[in-house]
Amino acid sequence: MTYPTWPTELEKILLEGYSAEFGNSRQISRPRDAFIRSKRKVSRVPQPIQFAIFATPDQKQRFERFWFEEIEEGNSFFYIPDPELYGKVLADESLASITTRDGAPIEISNTWLCMFDEQPPRREWIAGTNYRLSMNILVMP
């Protein structure tokens, strides 16, 4: 099955507004007369991510088309570039760039399979005619 891809017309994710958590697959019990016990509930869980982008009115409309039409109001999975790695140059142990035979640096093109979390994206009008779009997504394992 083919899933939609994050629109290239939208700005890169703002790392200032970017927050990632580890998913929690543990079930913890606290018996009164013993130590805390922990066991795995499921084998893998999604990783929650929060981020925001600044958008012009055109970019806001492009995001709304993505939200309402392409991912059906958040009901479909989609691919998004990994904001921590996408576009960075691959390096060896000495931090020297790894290059192709032609000498061009090799860039990382890691993407995530995601879906929006329970809360829909939020938009805030900011100075001028621009918007801040804030959202929570779940990165699938």
What is the approximate shape? Answer: globular
Helix and strand run: EEEEHEEEE
Q: Helix amount, in percent?
A: under 10%
Strand proportion, as a percent range, falls in 25-35%
Radius of gyration: 19 Å
What's the pLDDT, averaged over the residues? 86
Instruction: Give the terminus-to-terminus CA distance.
Output: 17 Å
Question: Count of helical segments?
Answer: 1
Q: How many runs of DSSP E, i.e. beta strands?
A: 8
Describe it.
- There is one protein chain.
- A hairpin with a 5-residue loop joins strand 7 (122-125) and strand 8 (131-139).
- Helices cover 10% and strands 30% of the residues.
- It has one helix at residues 57-70, and strands spanning 19-20, 26-29, 37-40, 47-55, 78-81, 111-116, 122-125, 131-139.
- The two termini are 17 Å apart.
- Strands 1, 4, 5, 6, 7 and 8 form a 6-stranded antiparallel β-sheet that branches. The protein has a two-stranded antiparallel ribbon with strand order 2-3.
- The mean pLDDT is 86.
- It has 141 residues and is mainly beta.
